[in-house]
Design a protein that fits this description.
By secondary structure, the chain is α/β, with parallel strands linked by helices. 43% of the residues lie in helices and 14% in strands. The chain has helices at residues 13-21, 29-40, 54-65, 82-95, 113-122, 131-139, 156-161, 165-172, 190-199; strands at 44-47, 75-78, 104-107, 126-129, 150-153, 180-185, 204-207. Helix 3 packs across helix 4 (82-95). The structure holds adenosine monophosphate.
């Protein structure tokens, strides 16, 4: 065992077995560098591009913390685009496939609003979506976030470039202050630094 073995992290045994069965035999650099702090409960800023394995890093953080018997929204992941949100939701489902009755819901613009509202009525543990769509559901009273303990901003630099800062700030107002916040970005822009200082607590900064 060394520090790139998933088994060195103290993750739930089923999660380790499953990621090994997916062929993830060793942690990627961003996983090895962020997961110890993520699993400790710290806020973390990770610099990582698509392909670095960042999605599995935050997915493991979300899933290791999840209490599946508590059928409430415990994690919220914001992504800049529908395509990325769908990819993230499928990676979370894949990594969490051994957890019975887990419900991951994707909420994005461009998809019909009514069925999304119906799915929300049935409840979920993890929501993955784009900021505009998430905010619309909050404002219409479909989405209550008061039990969220993990908030993730994926591709934060792209989200800010696309003008989502006001929506992100409005969403954050609906989250508990004692949550854990993770931010992944391909580049450290000034905007990313500014938003992280507003929404994160003493984040560990990891440049993988
Ligand atoms: P991402 O950077 O999150 O878009 O991930 C890139 C790809 O790497 C995805 O297809 C993952 O399924 C895969 N992946 C993530 N972590 C590992 C790992 N530790 N070993 C092998 N493949 C991985």
């Amino acid at each position: 065992m060394n520090n790139t073995d998933f088994s060195s992290l103290g993750l739930h045994v089923d999660l380790v077995k499953n990621i090994l069965s997916l062929g993830y035999s060793k942690m990627t650099p961003i996983q090895a560098q962020t997961l110890p702090d993520i699993l400790k409960g710290s806020d973390v800023i990770g610099e990582g591009k698509t392909g670095s394995g960042k999605t599995a890093a935050f997915s493991l953080g979300i899933l290791n913390k999840l209490d599946v018997k508590n059928f409430r929204i415990q994690s919220l992941v914001l992504c800049p685009t529908r395509e990325l949100a769908d990819q993230v939701a499928s990676e979370v489902r894949k990594i969490g496939r051994t957890i019975h009755n887990i419900k991951v819901l994707s909420l994005c613009g461009g998809a019909p609003f009514g069925p999304q509202k119906g799915s929300l009525k049935h409840g979920a543990h993890i929501i993955v979506g784009t900021p505009g769509c998430i905010l619309e559901h909050i404002n219409k009273g479909n989405l209550a976030l008061s039990y969220v303990s993990m908030f993730v901003l994926d591709e934060a630099d792209r989200m800010l470039d696309m003008g989502f800062q006001p929506a992100v700030s409005s969403i954050v107002k609906h989250l508990p202050t004692n949550r854990q916040t993770l931010l992944f970005t391909a580049t450290f822009s000034d905007d990313a630094t500014v938003i992280s200082s507003k929404i994160m607590k003493d984040p560990k900064i990891i440049r993988a």
